[in-house]
Amino acid sequence: MIQKNLCRLLLTTELSNREAGQRCNVSHNTAGRYRERLREERLTWEQVNTMSIAALEARLNDGRERRKRKFVEPDWSHIHAELERVGVTITLLYEEYATNLDAGILSDREFRRRYDRYRRSRGLVMRQARRPGEELFVDYSGKRPSITDERTGVRMPVELWVGVLGSSRKTFAFCTLSQQLPDWIDAHVRALEFFGAVPQHLVPDNLKSAVVSISKKDGHYINPTYQALADHYDMMAMPTRARKPKDKAAVEAGVRLAQMWILARLRNQTFFSLHDLNQAIAKLLDRLNDKPMRTRGGKSRNALFEEVDRPAMRPLPMQPYEYADWKISVTVPQDYHVVWERNYYSVPYSLVTRKVNVRVTATTVEVYHRDQLVATHPRSYEVDRVFTKKEHQPPAHRLYGEEQLSELMAWAESAGPAVHGFMQHHLQVHSAAASMQAFRGLRRMARDCGTERLERACARALRMKATTMTSVRSMLARGIESTPLQVEAANDPVAPHANVRGAANYE
Question: Quick check: is 319 in a domain?
Fold first, then answer.
């Protein structure tokens, strides 16, 4: 305001330069210079009064700018990109800049100074506003705790998973054995149960458990199991850009905090199980989330969560997500059975040569075609088993199977009651396709070993409550189909022995 007051006195009064300078606390030389510049610019007080201080300064004190030499500025973005190349130095780039110029050349020192100013300007950081309940940032810590084998004393490093809500900064940490998909999914389910609510977005890094691949054309291809988790909780998985850690600055800060607040406090403790380690982490998390934050008005993470995040988040679904493995784009072969861990599961025969997706949980195998469930089977942990549903078969295959089964049952009835009973028991426990294979195997055994031996082996298998072909085949191979069971021998009051006379000696 001193400049405007000085101009007002010079333009509207008859005061001398010295008198005007004394009233505005500036020298008479400054007052004289302002009077001369006002005369040169032909400015009136009405014009000066409407101008801002900056505009007035630029208008009246432009002598230094007018006398300043004009330099040719290089393209600093090009200079910065060239310095990334191997062997290129700033000295070389200055020589190339100055070579083709006759005038307006920056000095070497000024060139370096201006480039340094440009480089610092590239490091500007945009503060991002986090909307309540919107984002859950997740990542693994680079520094890992460990558990100790109680028997051998060997320490095994484990992974520290960290999740941070964007607005309240409420933090969850949990240790897993690895960064593999089952552990990754389990950590997310536990985190959502910890928060007791669901955010809108998941923001992970680009590890394989979250992102299968990244392409310029299609962007991020989310892991199908991870996408299924997000769909179950009605969230969107929005991974960060590759090699852009500032996209997830919240969790980066959360990871550092977890390392200082949790790992540092547990560094001298020994844990013999993952459960014990996670219990200790849970106690420290309670303290961390209850700790007041100076930068947030003394409020704790828990207080901000209840005030800001929870009202904006959705409630948890009734059932937590159940982990499942997926096979994507499986072509249905001509036998209309898809393979999972060396077992064969039928799908409708009309889907032969089509692409289906296979989802496998701990108990169930599900097959989807265009997001529609087309087949469900109980999961088997045995191998080389075939599971066929009649409704999946074409009419000719279904009829052939029924005819074959009736023929085999007729043969079993003629072979003996034990063989027939074994086949009926097998059908109750196993699928029709597996029983068909077993019954054909019985016929081969009858040809190789004789029907009488097979009848005795099946009778012994029924007494053992055995329903597998392996048990019958083993008895015949070892020749023990006529040997009493140990329980039967123990209950016999006169057990067979070389020194015991039989009934023939008393005829």
Answer: no
